[in-house]
Amino acid sequence: MAGLAYKRILLKISGEALAGAQEYGISTDVIGFVAEQVREIHQLGMQIAMVVGGGNIFRGVEASARGMDRASADYMGMLATVINGLALQSALEKMGVDTRVQTAIEMREVAEPFIRRRALRHLEKGRVVIFVGGTGNPYFTTDTAAALRAMEIGADVVLKATKVDGVYTADPKTDPTAVKFDELTYIEVLSRRLKVMDSTAISLCMDNRFPIVVFNLNEPGCLRRLVNGARVGTLVRGG
What we know:
By secondary structure, this protein is an alpha/beta fold. Helices cover 39% and strands 19% of the residues.
């Protein structure tokens, strides 16, 4: 643990990221790459929890916009996160990383129910814990689940993995004049409507002065450099 910037982290990965170049489903190449990045920092002695989205399989908000009942659509999205969590668990355990999946929606045949004290025990024993099923409630995103779980387990930071190397004034893929922020306050994120995390998650982090780092997980070694204290991505914290 010597020299590490954090002792315990919450890594948030979107479901869309797990699809890779595909429009739908799980890319085994991406799952393997993510698992390798996690294995690298696990070997350093880092305590790692993860929250994974389900947008590569089903997005409740989009289905609701097309006329489906919002609560039902959100529950379907929560089930999609379980599929992604089990895929990540399989990839990590093939690499020798002991992993547990805890779900906010009970399904004991495939995952443990979320129990805070049990999650803490797993982390203390060096196991990676993957939280799935969101918060277990409709109308809340997996961003909010990530902020909530991070605080429940006493993590030091939320690391939000994206496809770009931080937060920009605009989408850098479509706007060549977009400028990257090295650091932002929660208020700046909310007032500028920057796409860091949803407003509920940002407000929760702001109320508890909980830091967020937005970084590019697609860059090999980026996660390792971040936990070793390198200035990577964009830091969001209080002013």
